[in-house]
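Researcher: Go.
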Amino acid sequence: MVCPVQFLCRALRTVGLVLFYYVFSIGITFYNKWLMKDFHFPLFMTLVHLVMIFCFSALVRSAMHCWTGKPRVLMSWKIYITKVAPTALATALDIGLSNWSFLFITISLYTMTKSSAVLFILFFSLIFKLEEPNPFLIVVVLLISSGLFMFTFESTQFNLEGFMMVLLASFIGGIRWTLTQVLMQKAELGLQNPVDTMYHLQPLMFMGLFPLFVYNEGLNLSTTSKLFRVSEVSALIYSLGTLSVGGILAFGLGFSEFLLVSRTSSLTLSIAGIFKEVCTLLLAAGFMGDKMGALNWLGFVICLSGISLHVALKTYFSKGKSTTLRQLPNKESPDLELPLLLKGQEDDSEDAEEEEQEILH
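Model: Structure:
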């Protein structure tokens, strides 16, 4: 039996980790939207974030290596190109389109539309046989789809171009998370640790997104007064500084999610993600001026019901099984999100991961 002091300590630790996760997850959404009002180069911003995430991941890997004395995983070029490249390309397009959409749509519409990623994840999980067919999944699909339709119906701040960008990003996100799940479950690749996954994905993501950046933003960026044609050094420092803050938030999001899952459970992160959507929409309506009618709020509640049912089903059907479900990022964050992952590792890899979690703790 757990004594009251231990229970209180665990509760306070969980609340602290959830709040730590909220700071980065909600913060990066509002920060990117704020930045896009004055800096109209979302793909370049994403490339800067990728570079910073790679550098921070390399530093964390080096710190883990110095602490444990164990070498970190490194892949051959053949495996890197054939196994990691498809996931990296899908991730780059998902993040790039998500950030791009902030030029056109509100945070509330973005948040709701990205919720449809659950549908595409389910679809591709069934195709890749990562998800077992279940009649309840039809209810989940109907709830989320109808909720999304009601939220966007007669919306005064609806933008078709931005909506299609987020919807396409959600579709690619379904492919992304399915491939990520397959990638992280292959024990022979050694990418069970999210820090290692981030480290290996960023270079290929950069190369995959760079041609799209050159085509859409290259010429305009080279002539903008915010970077290459600045009249004062202070303006350049301000632009680079604001971009760097976004990169710190992006890495912090992935790191905070890893801490939350490793010290609590995937169910905690799933429930925290549902409440985070509520907080995001309330903040968007209160501080960003997003307008939502009664029908829009009803659609939001129905969509959340579908997501909650999905979380409950994953939790229920995981009971009594030798494997456990693990969810690392949430769909709302445009950077570094991981879906409900199945963790079926060998005992030795479990011990190694537990040791790394203790280091982070």
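Model: The beta strands are 324-327, 340-343.
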